[in-house]
Amino acid sequence: MRAGPTKATVTLDLDGVLIQNPFGSYVVPTVLSHLEGSERLRGQDRDQAHRELRGAINAEWQRRMDRRDFVAAYHWDDIYAAVGQAYGVDQLPDVTRLVEEGAA
């Protein structure tokens, strides 16, 4: 006996009950730890440096959104690279690898 067609199911978990997104808990903190070594941030305490870096990341995201380049606005490797370049940091970890590590 042949099985009938299967139905595809799509679920959304916007409030993080079923799936926890590793960006806030792992990806962003790891990227910030790489960026905080910038000479441009010398003399700032860690919290102050992280606030500045988060602001720079958000500003880069917003620039891309403002020009309605939605693909680029969610190209996190490219956003982090642009911020890294502005802060003189060129060795940043791959976001895909960080997501996989953080999800594990």
Task: Please explain how this structure is put together.
By secondary structure, this protein is mostly helical. Helix content is 57%, strand content 0%. The chain has one domain (22-103). Helix 1 (22-35) crosses helix 5 (95-103) and helix 2 (46-66) packs across helix 4 (76-86). The longest helix has 21 residues, at 46-66.
What fraction strand?
A: under 5%
Number of strands: 0
Helix content: 55-70%
What count of structural domains? 1
Averaged pLDDT, please? 89
Low-confidence segments: none
Assign an overall shape: elongated
- Helix and strand run: HHHHH
Spatial gap, N to C terminus: 39 Å
In summary, what is this structure?
By secondary structure, the chain is mostly helical.
Name its key features:
single chain; 104 residues; mainly alpha; 5 helices; 57% helix
Which helices and strands, and how do they pair?
Layout: H1 22-35, H2 46-66, H3 70-73, H4 76-86, H5 95-103
